TrEMBL record:
The keyword Cytoplasm applies. It comes from Desulfosporosinus youngiae DSM 17734. GO terms for biological process: L-histidine catabolic process to glutamate and formamide; L-histidine catabolic process to glutamate and formate. Its EC number is 2.1.2.5. This is glutamate formimidoyltransferase. InterPro entries: Formiminotransferase_C, Formiminotransferase_C_sf, Formiminotransferase_cat, Formiminotransferase_N, Formiminotransferase_N_sf, FormiminoTrfase_cat_dom_sf, FTCD. One of its GO terms (molecular function) is glutamate formimidoyltransferase activity. GO terms for cellular component: cytoplasm. Residues 181-296 form the Formiminotransferase C-terminal subdomain domain.
């Protein structure tokens, strides 16, 4: 039985096509790895890659892509709407087939140790791989971003899990972890008022008493001159997409603003979309295992 894991590294580059393609080619060059998807956002200045394969191959692809990013991205000149602290900002591993979460945690540690020893990039372990409760939430690690990390990393309680207490001069710091599949989901508003999207993000996120398993921030899409609520949904089974979408619509109306669209970044589990289809179409007694064509084909 072949093991299969997924890796979704986020790189701090969404504008220079030549850099993005160089990272893609690096991943594609690794045997037994399939690059499923990669997408970029100009305003966020960030690219998200998704690839799968055998654990040892995926770990190698993650390392080589991080190495390539460290050579081509200088965080000293990087600007963008999305919080970031490194050229490769985060590298999560997700168990897909015949792999346990504990094994993905060990894969995180293997990669983290290698990034630190071979590339001199300090690494923090996060999510399921975190060694302390404070580091489970990526936002806690990333406070201060690249600029603030230069001083914060010197604090006793900010010592990285791997590497020296000193940021890489151009590549910054990287978070490596293990987690279940999440949905990266953005909702766009017909306003250029960034404060509105920030207030809505504050209302819906779990850390401020909002929806469980929802992380969100308000950002500005400068190229479109609109505000956006950018969301990471870490458990779509407990908090589905449609619930987040509807709450954002309700909150937006308080400010006289409307939702003009939404987007999913990278890949998403099929059931996350089926849940929303069932809700909006008001499907009765719908059975996704028996009534979704692809599910029937896969099980036959």
């Amino acid at each position: 039985m072949s093991q299969l894991i997924e890796c979704i590294p986020n790189f701090s580059e969404g504008r220079r096509t030549e850099v993005i393609e160089a990272i893609a080619e690096t991943i594609k060059s690794v045997p037994n790895v399939i690059l499923l998807d990669y997408s970029s956002d100009y305003s966020h200045n960030r690219s998200v890659f998704t690839f799968v394969g055998k654990p040892e191959s995926v770990i190698e692809a993650a390392f080589l892509s991080a190495k390539k990013a460290s050579e081509l991205i200088d965080m000293n000149v990087h600007t963008g709407e999305h919080p970031r602290m490194g050229a490769v900002d985060v590298i999560p591993f997700v168990p897909i087939k015949y792999v346990t979460m504990d094994e993905c945690i060990n894969f995180s540690k293997q990669l983290g140790e290698r990034l630190a020893s071979e590339l001199s990039i300090p690494v923090f372990l996060y999510e399921e791989a975190a060694v302390s409760a404070e580091r489970i939430n990526l936002a806690n690690i990333r406070k201060g971003q690249f600029e603030g990390m230069k001083e914060k990393i010197k604090d006793a309680d900010r010592r990285p899990d791997f590497g020296a207490q000193e940021v890489h001069p151009t590549a910054g710091v990287t978070a490596v972890g293990a987690r279940m599949p999440l949905v990266a989901y953005n909702v766009n508003l017909n306003t250029a008022d960034l404060n509105i999207s920030k207030q809505i993000a504050k209302t819906i996120r779990e850390s401020n008493g909002g929806l469980k398993y929802v992380k969100s921030i308000g950002v500005m899409l400068e190229d479109r001159n609109i505000a956006q609520v950018s969301i990471n949904m870490t458990n779509y089974e407990v908090t589905p997409l449609y619930r987040v979408f509807e709450l954002i619509k309700i909150e937006a109306q308080r400010y006289g603003v409307n939702v003009i669209g939404s987007e999913i970044i990278g890949l998403t589990p099929m059931n996350a979309l089926i849940d929303s289809a069932k809700y909006y179409l008001q499907l009765e007694e719908f059975n996704e295992k028996k009534q979704v064509l692809e599910n029937c084909l896969l099980s036959s």
